[in-house]
Each structure stands twice: as C-alpha cells, then as structure tokens.
C-alpha cells in the first residue's frame, strides 16, 4: 500500500512485476522536481529513500572516470534529472541535454558524442536539440532494425536484462 492509498497485489512474481510496471509508469510521468518528493512520500514507510536508491544504483564519478579510460567504452549522456523530454518545453530540454553533456565532458575529460533519451521518450524538439547540442547520435529505448538511411538521432537500441 502506498501512502496515497493505492494498493497492489504482490503475492506472485507476476503480480509483483505488474505492480512494479504500474508504479514505474506513475513515477516516470512526474516532472523531475516532483519525483523525489513523491517517491519519498510513497515509500518512506518501507524504509526507502530516493536519494539512497539513486546513490546505491548509480556509478560514482570515479567509476565513470575509470570506465571512460577503456578504449572499448564510450560514455554517453542521459540528461541530468532523467525526465520525459516530450513533456518539457524546448528550453527545458536544452538545459537537460546540454548540461548533461557538459558535466560528463568535464568529468571524463573527453568529448561526449552519444545520447540516450530517458525512457526513449522524445519529440521533434528533442531530436533537433540532440543534434544542435553536438551529439553525433542518440538512441530511443525500443529495439528494432537500424536502417542504412536512419537518422542518427533516433537510433533504436536493445535493452539488456539479467535474465535474457
């Protein structure tokens, strides 16, 4: 039961997966400034903190620097606050895309050439801004065939899962 009264059945793995999807959809539709407070409100009774989860699941700056030194690795950016870009103004999107690129380039001391749209969510402004911000390519979230004439700022990507 979430603090807003929403209740999910979680007796089976299937029900747990459905509950996760439903909560994920609700959280992913929030503006970045509401995400932390909503997450903490819903889950604080269970001992979960947004900041602690982000810290536990994210690479540290030193880990990012280390992996970026590997010649087989390219570090791409993914925005600063992981919003649904299509729900934002072009100006807000530009801040997300350019700030993410700038911060990563400063950290790894290399040009960041690639971008991944959070949740694969994008619109015409997102695509135009990815190109204008200097990214050489950008990927959406859903797998598919990459064609010879496909725009480099709407490439498909394949998701990898632990049990694949």
Features of this protein?
164 residues; mainly alpha; two-stranded parallel sheet; 4% strand; globular
Structure summary:
The chain has helices spanning 13-28, 32-43, 50-57, 61-68, 90-108, 124-132; strands at residues 114-116, 137-139. The protein has 164 residues and is mainly alpha-helical.
Protein model, in words:
The chain is mainly α and 164 residues long. The chain has helices spanning 13-28, 32-43, 50-57, 61-68, 90-108, 124-132; strands at residues 114-116, 137-139. The chain has a two-stranded parallel sheet. The radius of gyration is 18 Å and the shape is globular.
Class inferred from helices and paired strands:
mainly alpha
Poorly predicted runs are none
Largest sheet: 2 strands, parallel
- Average pLDDT, to the nearest integer? 88
The strand order across the widest sheet is 1-2
Written as H for each helix and E for each strand, in order along the chain, the element string is HHHHHEHE
Strands, count: 2
Task: Give the overall shape, derived from the CA principal axes.
Answer: globular
- How far is the first residue's CA from the last residue's CA? 30 Å
Radius of gyration from CA coordinates? 18 Å
* Residues in helices, as a percent range: 40-55%
Count up the helices: 6
Beta-strand residue percentage: under 5%
């Amino acid at each position: 039961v979430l603090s807003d009264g929403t209740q999910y059945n979680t007796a089976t793995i299937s029900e747990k997966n459905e509950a996760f999807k439903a909560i994920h959809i609700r959280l992913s539709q929030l503006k970045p400034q509401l995400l932390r407070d909503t997450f903490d409100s819903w889950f604080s009774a269970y001992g979960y903190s947004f900041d602690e989860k982000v810290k536990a699941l994210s690479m540290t700056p030193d880990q990012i620097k280390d992996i970026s030194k590997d010649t087989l690795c390219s570090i791409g950016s993914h925005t600063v606050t992981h919003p649904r870009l299509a729900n934002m103004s072009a100006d807000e999107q530009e801040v997300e895309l350019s700030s993410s690129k700038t911060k990563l380039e400063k950290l790894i001391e290399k040009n960041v050439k690639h971008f991944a749209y959070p949740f694969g969510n994008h619109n015409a402004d997102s695509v135009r801004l990815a190109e204008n911000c200097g990214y050489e390519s950008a990927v959406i979230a859903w797998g598919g065939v990459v064609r010879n004439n496909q725009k480099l700022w709407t490439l498909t990507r394949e998701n990898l899962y632990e049990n694949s």
